[in-house]
Amino acid sequence: MTELGWEFCQLYGLTETSPLLTFNRQRAEWDTLSAPARARKLGRAGVPSLGTRVDISAEGEVVASSNSVLKGYWNQPNATEVALADGVFHTGDGGYVDDEGYLTISDRKKNVIVSGGENVSSIEVEDALMSHPAVKEAAVIGVPDDRWGETVLALVVVQSDVSSETLVAHCRELIAGYKVPRIIEFVRELPRTSTGKIQKFVLREPYWAGLERQVH
Q: Does residue 214 lie in a domain region?
């Protein structure tokens, strides 16, 4: 978009943060980086906006404080207490801050799969699956497992024939072994909201039905 004089900025925030928490914009010195390195830089959520503090809790959750953060939910004291525990706003997102002070969002906290004591980012596994040319869409969730607590299951929409064994082997080349899907199910489509977001809670329902709680 240089020809038009436009500059793209990546912003991160929530409705509860009015909505901006961080921003990331192209920096001139990044032009000398390789394409993959530049993509990683641009893929970060960015640095805190003016007057905002962003931290990572002991559980790996992004928390924030700012004058723009909500004071509470209307007539929902319990939800307010949870969201503003310890005097900071809990975003529900997992992430980390690098040595340059840039925040990267790794996953929704509720979408992190805890298998055998190891945290697995569903986004990382989905990215690995989506890099295979036969895969059109993928959604990764945690399902109950007697030994590991949860195990990684992938629901995949394909655009050409491919076997689950091939996809597992493909993932093993890209991510750690404990993150590789143990179960792959092929589906025609994935449930989405009116804005196009995959409804993972709908995907989880049949696997967790009848259980008192989800493991994580």
A: no
Contact 85, 99 (CB under 8 A): no
Which residues sit opposite 108 in a β-bridge? 93
pLDDT of residue 216: 43
Cβ atoms < 10 Å from Cβ of 147: 7
Lowest mean pLDDT among 44-48, 70-74, 176-180, 195-199: 195-199
> Is-above-0.70 flag for pTM?
no
Which tens digit of pLDDT belongs to each residue from 73-82?
999 999 999 9
- Domain edge (last residue) among 62, 86, 108: 108
At which residue do the structure tokens 């091939």 appear? 166
Beta-bridge partners for 157: 137
pLDDT in tens, 196-211: 889 998 999 999 887 7
Q: How far apart are CA 143 and CA 170, in angstroms?
A: 22
| Of 124, 186, 122, nearest in space to 158 by CA | 186
Domain CATH number, residue 172: 3.30.300.30
Say how many C-beta atoms besides its own lie within 10 A of residue 21's C-beta: 28
